[in-house]
Amino acid sequence: MDAPVDLYQRAIKLWGPVAQLDLCIEECAELTVALSHVKRGRVDPKSPKLAEEIADVSILLDQLEVLLNNHELVSTARRQKLARLQQRVEYGEAQRENDPSTRSS
Questions:
Q1: What burial class does residue 3 get, using C-beta atoms within 10 Å of its C-beta: 0-12 exposed, 13-18 middle, 19+ buried?
Q2: What is the 3-state secondary structure (H, E, C) of 47-81?
Q3: For the chain, what are the domain ranges?
Q4: Which of 43, 89, 97, 104 could bond to 37 as cystine, CB 3.0-4.6 Å?
């Protein structure tokens, strides 16, 4: 978590855990819509609006770790997921190197 925990605790105390959960759901939905627009060419990937949506979701995901008190579990899961991603990328790259159709003439 790259965040001011105290600020997150204050936000949770001020607005309540249910409101923060609802806000996280809403922000994830807004990011989903923005990404759909990027995919269809309606929004520039470098748009400030898209950057704001990504930042909103990132901040609220950090708040969830504080709200649910599961930072260590999330950190462990993240490390495992990143290790798995690395394995899959390395395997995919090796497959591509061995595929004659991907070699340049």
A1: middle
A2: CHHHHHHHHHHHHHHHHHHHHHCCHHHHHHHHHHH
A3: 1-69, 70-105
A4: 43
Q: How many residues does the chain have?
A: 105
Where residue 100 falls among pLDDT bands split at 50, 70, 90?
confident
Which pairs count as long-range contacts for 23-28, CB under 8 Å and 24+ apart, including other chains? 23/60, 24/57, 24/60, 24/61, 24/63, 24/64, 27/53, 27/56, 27/57, 27/60, 28/57, 28/60
Average pLDDT, the chain: 94
Rounded CA-CA distance 28/54 in Å is: 9
